[in-house]
Write a structure and sequence with these properties.
By secondary structure, this protein is an alpha+beta fold. The chain contains twelve helices and eleven strands. This is Trigger factor. Belongs to the FKBP-type PPIase family. Tig subfamily.
Length: 446
């Protein structure tokens, strides 16, 4: 039996669950006898082990299982009887003041909040839009050319020229030896031999690159370099070192011409440059559409949070924090990092978890109230859209439809999109044009 539900806070509740001790003993004895039928012990045939020995070996676990089953069943029955929507799992504590022959437990738990989304018609949302112009296509081609760069010794004549005067300049790849000292003493990480880097890429500190520019092979230069206060090397951060560098090799960058061969390297079989540009434009437009959708989704989610005032169950935030911590641990492990003994405090993930839980509750309410569930047709269309960027679209369809969890992920994306479209259809929306570079530099995540 369970007592009346006691309200401890906006979402926190408590009830006391009680049942006769005799019921527990009867069930424990029943399960022990069942266990005895297959129990094994040295010197006894299976099923012939004395009950006392079975109880000694399995009694504690069986008693624990019986108590968990009875408490869980009693709690669920009481929650259903009181029409409670329980969030997470209850905290169960045994009571010390139970009457003789009775076992009593306090179950403390939280319930789901009432979710009442505000007036969406009064919500103002700014969405973004962006276009792909010839300038963006040209920039992308330049990036693709740089990805296919190859280097030649500067100053030596070759198939592609000599690269100009043999003096180090931006975009050249240099190989140097260097030694750094602070107060006349070498420091860890301040020396290297045959160290290669490309001038102008920003891999080295500005003073280092400036000192290298203008050198010829075999020349050396000594210069001062002030490490920034926030430099990653704490032992040298904020200090000034004196470096000596020697240029050992100098190479100039040769970028491939934008011709038929270049187009073929990008998958255009006949080498048609116009087809290449059209293909690049399609890919850029797909990427832009994805970024725009992500930014607009983020704006909608922010608006929903602002317009919906509610308490969020702490237990759900804790559970999601644990999930995020484990996901982070797995991701870092897959990247080759040893995080076995690294702590992942839940508070690091609490803010993100609270937002995720809050949005989950809001979206669930909106979907249920407005019938925004993902349809099979929408899910299939979404998967087909994913498949467009792959060589074998049929394999992509098979990949998703062969695994219910993958399919559920797509359903969740479609559901969110349904909510976004529903909200945008109700709210006061203004569209803002954003620059291509700004959009591609953003990492919006809902």
């Amino acid at each position: 039996m369970a007592t009346a539900v006691e309200t401890l806070g906006k979402l926190e509740r408590r009830m006391t669950i009680s049942f006769p001790l005799a019921e527990v003993r009867t069930e424990v004895e029943k399960r022990l006898k069942q266990q005895a039928k297959t129990a094994k012990a040295p010197g006894f045939r299976p099923g012939k082990v004395p009950l006392k020995m079975v109880a000694a070996q399995y009694g504690y676990q069986i008693e624990s299982d019986v108590l968990n089953d009875k408490v869980g069943r009693a709690f669920n029955d009481a929650a259903n009887e009181n029409e409670l929507r329980v969030a997470g799992f209850p905290k169960i504590d045994a009571k010390d003041d139970s009457p003789e022959g009775v076992l009593s437990f306090d179950a403390t738990f939280e319930v789901y909040p009432e979710v009442s989304v505000g007036d969406l018609a009064a919500v103002e949302i700014e969405t973004v839009k962006a276009d792909v112009s010839d300038a963006e296509i040209d920039k992308t081609i330049e990036i693709l050319r740089k990805q296919r760069v190859h280097y030649h010794t500067k100053g030596e004549a070759g198939e592609h020229g000599d690269g100009g005067a043999p003096i180090a300049a931006n975009d050249d790849r240099v190989t140097v030896d260097f030694t750094g000292v602070i107060d006349g003493v070498e420091f860890p990480g301040g020396q290297a031999q045959d160290y290669a880097f490309v001038l102008g890429e920003g891999r080295m500190l500005p003073e280092f690159e400036a000192a290298t520019i203008g050198l010829k092979v075999g020349e050396s230069k000594t210069f001062d370099l002030a490490f920034p206060e926030d430099y990653h090397g704490k032992d040298v951060a904020g200090k000034t070192a004196q470096f000596t560098i020697t240029l050992k090799q100098l190479e100039w960058a040769h970028l491939p011409a934008v011709d038929a061969e270049f187009a073929k390297s990008l998958g255009i079989e006949d080498g048609d440059a116009e087809k290449m540009r059209a293909d690049i434009k399609v890919n850029l437009e797909r990427e832009v559409a994805g970024r725009v959708k992500a930014r607009n989704k983020e704006a909608v989610m922010d608006a929903l949070i602002k317009v919906t005032d509610m308490e969020v169950p702490k237990v759900m935030i804790e559970q999601d924090s644990e999930r995020l911590a484990e996901m982070t641990r797995q991701d870092m492990t897959q990247r080759g990092m040893d995080v076995k003994n690294m702590p992942f405090p839940q508070e690091l993930f609490a803010t993100k978890a609270e937002r995720r839980v809050r949005l989950g509750l809001i979206l669930s309410q909106l979907v249920g109230d407005n019938k925004l569930q993902a349809t099979q047709e929408q899910v299939k269309a979404q998967i087909e859209d994913f498949a467009q960027s792959y060589e074998d679209p049929k394999e992509v369809l098979k990949y998703y439809y062969s695994d219910r969890r993958r399919l559920a992920e797509v359903e969740a994306l479609v559901l969110e999109e349904n909510v976004v479209n529903y909200v945008l259809g109700k709210a006061k929306v203004t569209a803002k044009a954003v620059a291509f570079d700004e959009l591609m530099g953003s990492n919006a995540q809902a």
